Amino acid sequence: xxxxxxxxxxxxxxxxxxxxxxxxxxxxxxxxxxxxxxxxxxxxxxxxxxxxxxxxxxxxxxxxxxxxxxxxxxxxxxxxxxxxxxxxxxxxxxxxxxxxxxxxxxxxxxxxxxxxxxxxxxxxxxxxxxxxxxxxxxxxxxxxxxxxxxxxxxxxxxxxxxxxxxxxxxxxxxxxxxxxxxxxxxxxxxxxxxxxxx
Length: 198
Ligand SMILES: [Zn+2]
Prior knowledge:
The chain has one domain (11-190): Peptide Deformylase (Alpha-Beta Complex), CATH 3.90.45.
């Protein structure tokens, strides 16, 4: 089911998500909802808190990056390791219409569980690494605006205010293909960044 996406200002986005301890049927439903909502928005990733569910769960679709990344839902993910730094444009479904350059590690290793509770490990570079980091941040209540320099943040907040004003029910904005870390292939991506080769 496609769920409503919580926008900046909603308290759930600042609340650290609870770890999942029950890998039951409700988790499968949440996973389906995350993937459906992510696809509908044309996004690469979506954290459960963004649909109002305060659990440490996110969806990610590495296949959108023309790489061998997985389309999956990860649970209780933690950043195991990171290296390098790269600045790229980033967006977030909870900040419609907002994009800004954000510095993030270039390579990451993630430890998580799949929806069956099995431990999984993932490594990624470039844009997929950025997507993992963006979603893991959501689950601790951190937003990409927290990583902006103060001037950019002020500018972004001003723009967001006007975007949200235009999205009032009497004046709905058309759905844009943007999203949580929207995929825009960069030169670096084309040069081979993406998920590590097996
Ligand atoms: Zn986001």
